[in-house]
Design goal:
The complex is a heterotrimer of chains A (658), B (100) and C (190). Chain A has 658 residues and is mainly alpha-helical. Chain A has 26 helices and two strands. In chain A, a hairpin with a 2-residue loop joins strand 1 and strand 2 (78-86). Among the domains of chain C are: 1-79, NADH-ubiquinone/plastoquinone oxidoreductase chain 6, subunit NuoJ (Four Helix Bundle (Hemerythrin (Met), subunit A)), CATH 1.20.120.1200; 138-190, no CATH class. The chains are: A mainly alpha (658), B mainly alpha (100), C mainly alpha (190). Strand 1 of chain B pairs antiparallel with strand 1 (117-118) of chain C.
Chain lengths: 658, 100, 190
C-alpha cells in the first residue's frame, strides 16, 4: 500500500478511541454496562485493527511517511500544523500501545464491572488511548505536547478515579503537578527550539541540528535543550527527581496502573528522548546526564522496592527502576535497545500488574503481601502467568526480559558513551530486581495463606468488588484471565525479535547514527566479552532468586532479624528514604505558605480587594464632603455663583491683559 | 465729553451693589429688588455703548430687557406670595426644604 | 464740563440709593431707595440722549414694577428683617468674590485708554426711528416678548391665587360636567 492509502487509516486511528470516549462519556450514564463495554472495546479494538493493517502495509523502503491533516499555527515564518508521522519507531510504539491497550481494555471490563463509575472508567481509558496515539504519531513537538499533556490529564482522571477517597484525589493531583514541573522544562526546550530553529517539526529541527557542531566540550544551546527535554521526560517517566508521583499513582484501579503507569504513558518520556536522539547525539553532556539519571534511578528505586509490603507499590518501584534502564540505554546512545526494553517491559510489567490485580480481586481487595501466601493453589492461571512475568523481568533466558535487559547492559558497557560503571550498577540493579520480584512471588504464592478468610477484608483500596467472597481466595473470571495469557505468551516470545540484532536493524533507519555506533562494537574480541557479561547478568538473576528463596521460603525468620539489625537504614528504605517528606519541606510548604501569605493575603486581599473597596470608600467619603454644598440655602448658592463669576472675570481680564 | 468708561464703571458699581444685596439681605423681596438693581446697571451699560457707537439697537435691547424684567418681577412676586402662604415667612434662610 | 458735573451728580444719587438699599433693614425703605436709583438712572439716560428709554424707564420701571413691589410688600406685611445666620459661604466667599470681580473690571476699564468718549445727548434718533427698529427689524423678538408677558400674567395669576379659588378636581366631577352642559344648553336656549 502506498502512503495515499495509509493516510486515511492513520488519520482516523486516534479519532477512533476519541469517538469511543465521547460516546461513553456523554451517553454512558444511561447505557447498560454491556453497551458501554461494547462501545469501548469496539473503538479500541478498531484502533488496534487499523494499527495492524498499517503495520502490514508498512514498507521500510517508503518510510518515513508524513500525513498532513490541517493547518494550525501560521505566524510569520513560523508554522506548526497537525501532521502525523509514521516511521519504524512510531510503528513499534503504535503496535505496543494499541495491542497492550486493547488487552487491558478487555481486562478492565471484567475488573471494573461492579463499579458505579464503569462508564466513566471506560470513557477515560479511551480518552487516554486517543492522547497517547496523538503523542506517538505526532510529526512535530507541539502536537506531541498535546498528546503529552493529554495523557497527563487522563492519568490524573484515572488515578483519582475513586475521587471520593482523599488519598486517591491527592495522588491524582500529585501526579499532575509533578508532571507539570517536568512539562515546564519541556516547554522551555520547545521555546529554545523555536528561537534557534524557527520550527518544531521533527525533520526540520533535526536537519538543522545536524549542521551544528557537536558540543563536546561544554554547555551550549543543544545541551540546554537536551537537558530540558530530559526534565520533561523525568516528569513523565518518573525518574529522579520527579518520580514521587508514580508510587502514589497506585491509588488508581489496577488496570490503570497496568496501562498507564507500566506500559504506555510512562514510556512516553523514553519515546520522546529516542525521537530527539539527534539533539542528544550532538550534546554528549546532556546524554551523559540522561544516562546518569537513568542509572541512579534504576538502583535507587530497586532498593526501595525491597522493603515494600504492598504488592502494587513493589511493582511501581519496579517500573521506576526499569524505566531507569531505558534511560540508561538512551544515555549511552543505544536507543533501539531502550525501545526494545520498552516493548518487552510493556508485556511483562503489564502482565505483572494485571496479574496483581487478579490476585487482589481474588483475595477480596487485600493488597498487603504479608496477608497473602499460598495462592498458587487457589489461582493457578494467575500463578502461571505471573510466574512467567516474574522470570521475564528478572532476566532469565529465553524470556523477553533477558534479551532486552542484556542488550542494555551490553551497550552500557561497550558503547562509546558508556562505561563499566553503568554496567556495574546495572548488574547490581538486576540482582536487586530479581530479589524483590522473587520476594513478591514467594510471599504471594507460596507458603500458607495468611489472609483473613472472613468477609471483612473488602473495602480496602480496590473497590471494584461489591460482592463478598467471604471464604477462600478464588480465581478470576476468564475475561480477566484471557489478556493475562496473551501477555504471558508475548513475554515469552517478545524478546526473540531481538535475536541477531533483527529489531535493531529494523529501527536502524530511524537511529542512523545509533546504527553506526552499534556497528562499531561488532568485533570478535568483544563477542567473548559480550558472552561473559551476559553470563554475569544471568548469574545475578539466579543469585537474586536464591536469596529470595533463602529469606522467604527456607529461613523465613531471617528477614525480620536482618531488618532489626539494619535498624535505621531499614527504616529509611521502607519509608522511601523520606523523599516525600523532604519535598514537602523544601518545595511544597514554601509554595503553600507563600501562596497563602503573599499571593492570597498580600496581593489578592491586600492589593486587589483593597483597591476596589477603597475606591468605593473614597467615593463615598468624597461625596460625603461634597454633599454639604447642597444646603438648600439660596444665599450660599448665590455665594458660589458670585465666587465662580469672579474667577471667570479674573480669567478674562488676565487673558485680555496678556 | 466724558470717557465711556465712566458710564461703565457706574454700571459696574450698580451691578455690584445688586449682587451684594443678593448675598447679604435676608428678605426675599429685598433680594428681588437687588435683582432689579442688577438689571438696571446692565441697562445703563447698554445705553452707554449705544451712545458710543451711535447705534439705536442698544436702546431697543434695553426695551426688551425692561419687558423681561417686568415679566420676571410679576412671576417672582407671585411665587413669593405663594411661598409666604405656605411657609409664613419671608426669610430666605428658612426656605430650605431642598437641604440634603 | 457740564456733562461731567451732571453725570457725577446723578451718578452720586444713583450710588447713594443703591447703597441705601443695602443698608436699610425695612423692605419699604429699600424699595423707595430703588425708586430713587431708577429716577437718577432716567436722568443719566437723558444725558446720553436716550429720551425714549428714559421715559420708558420712569413709566414702566419706576411706575409699574416698583409699584408692584410696593403692593406686594404691603400685602405681605413685610416687616424689618430679623437677623438670622445665613450662609457662611455667601459672606465669606461670595462678597469678597464680587468685590474682587468689580475691582478687576473697574481697573480694566479705567486703564484702557482707547475706549473713546461720549458726548452729551449723543444718541441720535427720535422715537420714530426706535419704532421703525422695533417693528421692522426686531419684530419677532417683539412678538415673542408679548407672548412672554402673556405667559407671565397667567403664571402670576395662577401662582398667587388663593388655593380654593383654583378649579380643583371635585369628587362630583361628572355632575360638574353635566352642569357645564346644562349651562351651555341654557346659553343656547337664550
Amino acid at each position: 500500500m502506498t502512503p495515499q492509502t495509509l493516510s486515511p487509516l492513520l488519520s482516523i486511528l486516534p479519532i477512533l478511541p476519541l469517538a469511543g470516549a465521547a460516546i461513553n462519556g456523554f451517553f454512558g450514564r444511561q447505557s447498560s454496562k454491556k453497551t458501554i463495554s461494547a462501545v469501548a472495546l469496539f473503538f479500541c479494538g478498531a484502533a488496534f485493527a487499523v494499527a495492524l493493517v498499517v503495520a502490514f502495509s508498512f514498507s521500510s523502503a517508503d518510510a518515513p511517511y508524513s500525513f498532513p491533516l490541517a493547518h494550525w499555527i501560521r505566524s510569520g515564518s513560523f508554522s506548526v500544523d497537525f501532521e502525523f508521522y509514521l516511521d519504524q519507531l512510531s510503528l513499534v510504539m503504535l503496535l505496543v500501545v494499541t495491542g497492550v491497550g486493547f488487552l487491558i481494555h478487555i481486562y478492565s471490563v471484567g475488573y471494573m464491572w461492579d463499579d458505579d463509575g464503569f462508564y466513566r472508567f471506560m470513557s477515560y481509558l479511551n480518552l487516554f488511548m486517543f492522547f497517547m496515539l496523538t503523542l506517538i504519531l505526532a510529526k512535530n513537538y507541539l502536537v506531541m505536547f498535546i498528546g503529552w499533556e493529554g495523557v497527563g490529564l487522563a492519568s490524573y482522571l484515572l488515578i483519582g478515579f475513586w475521587f471520593t477517597k482523599d488519598s486517591a484525589a491527592s495522588a491524582g493531583k500529585k501526579a499532575f503537578i509533578t508532571n507539570r514541573v517536568g512539562d515546564f522544562g519541556f516547554l522551555i526546550a520547545l521555546f529554545l527550539m523555536i528561537k534557534h530553529f524557527h520550527s518544531l517539526d521533527f525533520t526540520k529541527v533535526f536537519e538543522q541540528v545536524h549542521t551544528w557542531p557537536t558540543e563536546a566540550a561544554g554547555v551550549g544551546t543543544l545541551t540546554a535543550i537536551g537537558l530540558l527535554l530530559m526534565v520533561g521526560a523525568a516528569g513523565k517517566s518518573a525518574q529522579i527527581p520527579l518520580y514521587v508521583w508514580l508510587p502514589d499513582a497506585m491509588e488508581g484501579p489496577t488496570p490503570v496502573s497496568a496501562l498507564i503507569h507500566a506500559a504506555t504513558m510512562v514510556t512516553a518520556g523514553v519515546y520522546m528522548v529516542a525521537r530527539s536522539h539527534v539533539i542528544f547525539e550532538h550534546a554528549p553532556n546532556a546524554m551523559l546526564v540522561v544516562a546518569i539519571i537513568g542509572t541512579l534511578t534504576a538502583l535507587f528505586a530497586a532498593t526501595i522496592g525491597i522493603a515494600q509490603t504492598d504488592i502494587k507499590k513493589v511493582l511501581a518501584y519496579s517500573t521506576v527502576s526499569q524505566l531507569g534502564y531505558m534511560f540508561m540505554a538512551c544515555g549511552v546512545a543505544a536507543f533501539s535497545a531502550g525501545i526494545f526494553h520498552l516493548m518487552t517491559h510493556a508485556f511483562f510489567k503489564g502482565l505483572l500488574f494485571l496479574a496483581a490485580g487478579s490476585v487482589i480481586h481474588g483475595v477480596g481487595g487485600e493488597q498487603d503481601m504479608r496477608k497473602m501466601g499460598g495462592l498458587r493453589t487457589y489461582m493457578p492461571w494467575t500463578f502461571l502467568t505471573m510466574s512467567i512475568a516474574t522470570f521475564a523481568i528478572a532476566g532469565f533466558p529465553p524470556l523477553a526480559g533477558f534479551f532486552s535487559k542484556d542488550e542494555i547492559l551490553w551497550k552500557a558497557y561497550s558503547s562509546e558513551y558508556g562505561s563499566w560503571v553503568f554496567w556495574l550498577i546495572g548488574v547490581t540493579t538486576a540482582f536487586i530486581t530479581s530479589f524483590y520480584m522473587f520476594r513478591l512471588w514467594f510471599m504471594t504464592f507460596f507458603g500458607d495463606y495468611r489472609g483473613a478468610t472472613a468477609p471483612d477484608t473488602h473495602g480496602h483500596s480496590d473497590h471494584g468488588h461489591g460482592h463478598d467472597h467471604g471464604h477462600d481466595p478464588h480465581e478470576s473470571p476468564w475475561v480477566m484471565l484471557g489478556p493475562l495469557v496473551v501477555l504471558a505468551f508475548l513475554s515469552v516470545v517478545g524478546g526473540w525479535v531481538g535475536i541477531g540484532g533483527r529489531f535493531e536493524h529494523f529501527l536502524a533507519p530511524v537511529f542512523q547514527s545509533g546504527g553506526e555506533i552499534a556497528a562499531e562494537t561488532g568485533e570478535a574480541a568483544s563477542k567473548v566479552t559480550e558472552y561473559i557479561l551476559m553470563g554475569i547478568s544471568v548469574a545475578a538473576a539466579v543469585l537474586g532468586f536464591l536469596l529470595a528463596w533463602t529469606l522467604y521460603i527456607s529461613r523465613p525468620q531471617l528477614p525480620a532479624r536482618i531488618a532489626e539489625s539494619l535498624g535505621g537504614l531499614y527504616k529509611a528504605v521502607s519509608n522511601k528514604y523520606y523523599i516525600d517528606e523532604l519535598y514537602a519541606i523544601l518545595f511544597i510548604k514554601p509554595v503553600i505558605d507563600g501562596s497563602t501569605d503573599i499571593l492570597w493575603h498580600g496581593v489578592d486581599q491586600g492589593a486587589i480587594d483593597a483597591t476596589v473597596n477603597n475606591t468605593a470608600t473614597a467615593a463615598r467619603h468624597v461625596s460625603d464632603e461634597v454633599r454639604h454644598m447642597q444646603s438648600g440655602n439660596l444665599r450660599s448658592y448665590a455665594g458660589w455663583v458670585a465666587a465662580g463669576g469672579a474667577l471667570v472675570i479674573a480669567y478674562m481680564v488676565w487673558m485680555g491683559v496678556r | 465729553m466724558i470717557p465711556l468708561s465712566y458710564y461703565l464703571v457706574l454700571s459696574g458699581i450698580l451691578f455690584t451693589c445688586g449682587v451684594l444685596g443678593f448675598l447679604i439681605k435676608r428678605n426675599i423681596i429685598t433680594i428681588f429688588m437687588s435683582i432689579e438693581l442688577m438689571l438696571n446697571g446692565v441697562n445703563l451699560s447698554f445705553v452707554a455703548f449705544a451712545a458710543h457707537w451711535h447705534a439705536l439697537s442698544g436702546q431697543v435691547f434695553v426695551f426688551f430687557v425692561m419687558v423681561v424684567a417686568a415679566a420676571e418681577a410679576a412671576v417672582g412676586l407671585a411665587i413669593i406670595i405663594a411661598v409666604y402662604r405656605t411657609r409664613e415667612t419671608l426669610n430666605v434662610d428658612q426656605v430650605n426644604l431642598l437641604k440634603l | 464740563m457740564l456733562h461731567l458735573i451732571l453725570f457725577l451728580f446723578f451718578g452720586a444719587i444713583c450710588v447713594a440709593g443703591a447703597i441705601n438699599l443695602l443698608v436699610q433693614s425695612h423692605p419699604i425703605n429699600s424699595a423707595l431707595s430703588l425708586i430713587v436709583v431708577m429716577a437718577s438712572l432716567a436722568a443719566e439716560y437723558l444725558l446720553l440722549g436716550a429720551e425714549f428709554v428714559a421715559a420708558v424707564q420712569v413709566i414702566v420701571y419706576a411706575g409699574a414694577i416698583m409699584v408692584l413691589f410696593l403692593i406686594t410688600i404691603m400685602l405681605l406685611n413685610a416687616g424689618k428683617e430679623e437677623r438670622t445666620n445665613g450662609s457662611r459661604v455667601a459672606t465669606l466667599l461670595g462678597v469678597p468674590g464680587v468685590v474682587v470681580g468689580a475691582v478687576l473690571v473697574a481697573w480694566t476699564l479705567i486703564h484702557r485708554s482707547d475706549m473713546g468718549s461720549v458726548s452729551i445727548g449723543a444718541l441720535p434718533g427720535e422715537p420714530k426711528d426706535i419704532a421703525r427698529l422695533l417693528f421692522h427689524d426686531f419684530l419677532l423678538p417683539f412678538e415673542v416678548t408679548s407672548v412672554l408677558i402673556l405667559i407671565a400674567i397667567m403664571g402670576a395669576v395662577v401662582l398667587a391665587s388663593r388655593p380654593d379659588a383654583v378649579a380643583r378636581p371635585h369628587p362630583t366631577a361628572p355632575v360638574r360636567h353635566e352642569e357645564h352642559e346644562l349651562v351651555a344648553a341654557g346659553k343656547d336656549h337664550e
